[in-house]
Design a protein that fits this description.
four-stranded antiparallel β-sheet; mainly beta; elongated
Length: about 80
């Protein structure tokens, strides 16, 4: 979780899809409520494990694709609101 201003912040992680696989999750708080940001659709389990705001409306998230004990690819994305 990272905050980029008073009450404004980002949280990342994962949620399970219909096949019980981890799918990346990004949430943004605008000071009054949380919203789910759209994430890329990827094959296989994936999750974000870190987040860093670069401006009040931009954030970079990082994580991996693959299972936690044997990640196969780095996952990174930029989100804006």
């Amino acid at each position: 979780m990272a905050f980029d201003g008073p009450g404004s912040g980002w949280a990342v992680g994962w949620t399970e899809d219909g096949n019980l696989e981890a799918q990346s999750l990004v949430l943004h708080r605008d000071g009054s409520s949380w919203t789910v940001s759209r994430t890329p659709t990827l094959n296989g389990p994936n999750e974000f494990t870190g987040v860093a705001p670069t401006a009040s409306t931009d954030v970079f998230a990082s994580g991996y694709i693959g299972v936690q004990n044997a990640p196969t690819h780095v996952l990174s994305a930029r989100f804006s609101c």
